[in-house]
Amino acid sequence: MLHSVSGTFLPGKTNLIIGASGTGKSVLLKCIVGLIQPDEGEVLYDGREFTTANRDLKTEIRREIGMLFQGGALFDSKNVEQNVMFPLDILTTLSKKEKLDRVNFVLERVGLANSNRLMPSELSGGMKKRVGIARAIVNNSRYLFCDEPNSGLDPQTAILIDSLIQEITREYNITTIVVTHDMNSVMEIGDYIMFIYKGRKLWEGNKETIGANNVAELQDFIYANNLMRALHGKE
Amino acid sequence: MFLGSLFVKREPLKTYIRLIFDEAVIIGVNSIVIVAIVSTFMGAVTAVQTAYNLVSPLIADYVISVIVRDMTILELAPTIIAIVFAGKVGSNIAGGLGTMRITEQIDALEVMGINSVSYLVLPKIIATLLVYPMLVIISGFLAIYGGYLAGIITGIITPTEYIYGIRADFNEFSVTFALIKSVVFAFLVSSISSFKGYYTQGGALEVGQASTSAVTNSVIAILTADYLLAQLLLD
User: Fold this and answer.
1) In this complex, is the C-beta atom of A97 within 8 Å of any C-beta atom belonging to chain B?
2) Domain boundaries defined on chain B
3) CB A71 to CB B9 under 8 A?
4) What are the tens digits of pLDDT across the range B91-131?
5) Is B42 a residue whose pLDDT tops 90?
6) The whole model's pTM is what?
7) What is the rounded average pLDDT of the residues B160-171?
8) How far apart, in whole angstroms, are the C-alpha atoms of residue A12 and residue B38?
9) Angle at B126 between CA B121 and CA B130, to 5 degrees
10) 3-state SS of A52-117?
11) Is the ipTM of this complex over 0.90?
């Protein structure tokens, strides 16, 4: 699926993995977070090798990771507060009050103050993503991974989620890696961009340099929609 | 491997105590009504059909309740209820875990550094091992009482004869045997259903298939174990 993909994500920045559907973006993300074991190669978290690490080191690194899944992956049987508090319940020894304060803080940060008692089934797509972000950062994660954070959202909500991810990345100095095929996200938040095509990395750069690339596959990807073609005079 | 991973890198014990209690309520308390209904009718039908087949005037009426008692304790309460239990609880476990798998909730646990097998499956198995024997005891009492009610209502046996038969030639090992079977069946249903649910791949259709497969495999395992235990312990 993936062939010799190599790259260094920028610490404290928003890093994007882009490419068309089925090119291996999500597989790459799952390899990085350890949900898929790659056949060969290594994944380094600030110099710590992850793929072949022993269980203790893997657990230690994973506890520094927050992840926003495509559908939110909220626990159906828990309400918003319980979902966000879950990592604190399992991974910390904070008191009930400290945990609640932290949960309320992150919920307020993602714009969902006073939504504590809502169940996942009562949330809109955008709200689920926000709760997912809140759960991902509640434990002061060092690394934030987002798998298609804009999928299924209307353009306005998608921009809000992008902005939220970028603000959180900057505010808390988190290293964020986002998998997306949304060109709006690329142009808004791409501090570092890696373009994947058929399992290979064909280009890397940032939102300022992406327009000047000379990779045909990337050009096709960027100018796939009429709006981008019109904006850049590619009609 | 699946069962082995239950005990690797577990979370703190207090986490499991709460989860086991929750699962015991879901698995045990929520099954009482169906177990009660099935057991009562099972005992009643056994009493009526036994009376129908005992046509010889040389056989005393109290034999009806002896047969109801022995059939209930040896076979009906532990085994037939296990099949009902597999249908209700087994499909619930497989469906729940399967849904968690396809909606990435299990991946979310793994990314947090939580041993998802241990966190999700171990409490279900322990809770089932704790509550199923209790359900079998309840079932035994209700089946015998169902036989009593049917006998009295239809007039096939007097209350005195029925109670005399229940006490006649009672072998205490029957109860031990029933409880051994109940523990084995509880383990089979919970572990097979958890395995089927945990490794679900695909979408909603596959979750349904996992539930069906969990019930089918559990029932086959129950009947096989039933025969083997009878051969081993009653020989």
Assistant:
1) no
2) 11-233
3) no
4) 999 999 999 999 999 999 999 888 899 999 999 999 999 99
5) yes
6) 0.87
7) 92
8) 61
9) 145
10) CCCHHHHHHHHCCEEEECCCCCCCCCCCHHHHHHHHHHHHCCCCHHHHHHHHHHHHHHCCCCCCCC
11) no
Residues 6+ apart with CB under 8 A from B32: B135, B138
Q: Which residue of A has its CA nearest to B16?
A: A90
State whether residue A125 sits within 8 Å of chain B by CB: no
Lowest mean pLDDT among A213-227, B89-103, B147-161: A213-227
Q: Name residue, tokens 């086959």.
A: B220
- On chain A, the residues whose CB falls within 8 A of the CB of B15 are 89-90
Q: CA nearest A29 in B: which residue?
A: B111
Q: Which helix (H) or strand (E) holds A204?
A: strand A200-205
**Chain-chain contact of A89 with B114 (C-beta, under 8 angstroms):** no
Across the interface, whether the CB atoms of B107 and A35 are under 8 A apart is answered yes
Q: Which of A6-20, A24-38, A211-225 has the lowest mean pLDDT?
A: A211-225
Element (H, E) at A179: strand A175-180
**pLDDT value for A235:** 57
Instruction: Point out the residue among B15, B105, B113 whose CB comes nearest to the CB of A73.
Output: B105
Task: State mean pLDDT over A178-195.
Answer: 86
A151 touches chain B (CB under 8 A): no
Query: What is the C-alpha to C-alpha distance for residues B218 and B193, in angstroms, rounded to an integer?
Result: 7
Instruction: Give residue A184's pLDDT.
Output: 80
Quick check: A92 contacting B, CB < 8 Å?
Answer: no
Q: How far is B185 from chain A (nearest CA, A)?
A: 27
